[in-house]
Amino acid sequence: MRRKKLESVIIDFSLIGSRIESICNTLAKRVVDIVFSATALLLLSPFLVVVALFIRLYSKGSVLFSQARVGKQGKEFLFWKFRSMYIDAEERKAALMKKNEMQGGVLFKMKNDPRITRVGKFIRKYSIDELPQLWNVLIGDMSLVGPRPPLPKEVDMVLLHKTVPAVLGARGAC
Q1: Inter-residue contact 135 to 80 (CB < 8 Å)
Q2: What is the pTM (predicted TM-score) of this model?
Q3: CA angle 160, 166, 170 (to 5 degrees)
Q4: Is 131 helix (H, G, I), strand (E, B) or coil?
């Protein structure tokens, strides 16, 4: 009887150690995210201004595109990109749905999408349109590596909101 009481008091230090290690890893990842995104935004700022000017010169509307996305723990945040489509892209999408290459209708993708601007084609080809997401990384909405943040309507289908979403998905980092 006495032995059972003693066993129930024993603390599993391996669990405490793994929890501390997990906290340290999370903290280290956040520090890397902050240092990298702040440095990149600072160094790339002249280039970002030039990209913004080209977007503004060749199409009407805002230089940036924002969209609600779902992050860790289901928290919604504004996801930033350089605008690569014409301002009426959402209105034109309905007429193009029959050309959707993605089955199921939740995601939309088509080759030679007429809603994409000339500058948009270039910045998408080289993923320049993604650079404003470094701001999302800096403020903690996203991380550099991890799952892409889903749209609110995709959350029921994709349950990835248990981690901080990232600029690079698993395939992009490897």
Answers
A1: yes
A2: 0.76
A3: 75
A4: coil
- CA separation for the pair 82, 62 (Å, rounded): 9
pLDDT digit of tens for each residue in the chain (174 aa)? 555 555 555 555 556 667 777 888 889 999 999 999 999 999 999 999 999 999 999 999 999 999 999 999 889 999 999 999 998 888 887 778 777 776 665 667 778 888 999 999 999 999 999 999 999 999 999 999 998 998 888 876 655 555 677 787 765 655
The phi and psi torsions of 151 (rounded to 5 degrees) equal: -70, 155
Cα-Cα-Cα-Cα dihedral sign, residues 68, 160, 23, 171: negative
Question: Is 140 in contact with 119 (CB distance < 8 Å)?
Answer: no
User: What residues form DSSP beta bridges with 64?
Assistant: 82
Per-position b or e across 152-165, b if 16+ CB within 10 A of its CB: eebbeeeebbeebb
Which residues on neighbouring strands pair with residue 70, listed in sequence order?
76
CB 146 within 8 A of CB 163: yes
78: left (phi over 0), alpha (psi -120 to 50) or beta: beta
